[in-house]
Design a protein that fits this description.
CATH superfamily of the largest domain: NADH:ubiquinone oxidoreductase Nqo5 subunit
Strand content: 15-25%
CATH topology of the largest domain: Beta Polymerase, domain 2
Helix content: 10-25%
Structural class: alpha+beta
Number of helices: 6
Number of domains: 3
Order of helices and strands: HHHEEHEEHEEEEHEEE
Length: 269
């Protein structure tokens, strides 16, 4: 039997999956994504850095439901909700260039306190902005030659019921097409006064995003041209994505039986 025939016979006897993996290595080399560590395949897979964190609440169960029972079977699960600590200079790479340009503009306008903190976490940078200065900071980020964050991908709401005085969070994702950079802005408001300036006049794409965030979380965007619900009926009570919103649900019927709504099922506690 020739060496070629023997090799063909061995390949036929191998598991099909193993044969496919070996073929992939032959095509792209031994450093293919097949055997690369996850952190090399994608930087977002890098574990979060350990260090100082700020606890902003505690989550119980799979869904964090309260008042209606957790029906997931994880009712005993208890996990702290934490924030990564503010980062210190140097942030690294172009993060410092953006921070320097923003700081220079704020210093020239006597608004150095507009940025409450800067967090670099999982290779992403977030600027925490005072809500009363949000519109001014956003316009500087858009118009400054050294910044040029021309596009806002939208605003998302987050609700932390135990973060006293800062229960409502609004998060903005900005893109600089000029410099190919992405940053995040985050602003907070108390539950008792959930007002945040609208950015529609600066980033018109935020129109429906602000409406959705108002609809789901109850954040009021002052200056929005038509802040009405976009998903729920106009007379719908409450805001469905808040953590204190009841689990609720409707019964489901099928041939031979029925299932009660989630808040009436057993809670496994």
């Amino acid at each position: 039997m020739s060496k070629k025939d023997k090799g063909s016979k061995d390949s036929a006897e191998k598991d099909p999956i193993e044969a496919t993996l070996e073929k992939a290595k032959e095509v792209v080399g031994t450093r293919s994504t097949v055997d690369q560590p996850a952190t090399e395949q994608d930087p977002s897979n890098v574990p979060a850095q350990t260090g100082e964190v700020r606890a902003v609440g505690e989550r119980r169960g799979m869904f964090g439901a309260s008042g209606s029972g957790d029906t997931s079977g994880y009712d005993g699960l208890v996990r702290q909700t934490v924030y990564p600590a503010p980062s210190q200079r140097p942030y690294g790479g172009w993060f410092d260039e953006v921070a320097d340009a923003l700081e220079a503009r704020l210093t020239s306008t006597d608004l150095t306190s507009a940025i409450e903190s800067v967090v670099v976490h999982r290779r992403e940078i977030t600027f925490h902005v005072r809500r009363e200065d949000l519109a001014f900071v956003a316009q500087m980020l858009r118009d400054d030659e050294a910044l040029r964050f021309e596009f806002c991908a939208g605003v998302s709401g987050v609700h932390y019921p135990d973060d006293a005085g800062r229960e409502m969070h609004a998060v903005y994702h900005l893109l600089s097409m000029t410099h190919n950079r992405r940053i995040r802005l985050e602003v907070t408001a108390p539950d008792a006064d959930p007002h945040i300036p609208s950015l529609v006049s600066i980033y018109p794409t935020n129109d429906w995003h602000e409406r959705e965030t108002f609809d789901m979380f109850g954040i009021i965007f002052d200056g929005h041209p038509a802040l009405t619900r976009v998903l729920m009926p106009d007379d719908w009570p409450g805001h469905p994505q808040r953590k204190d919103y009841p689990l609720g649900g409707i019964p489901v019927e099928y041939k031979g039986g029925s299932i009660p709504p989630p808040d009436q099922r057993r809670s496994y506690n």
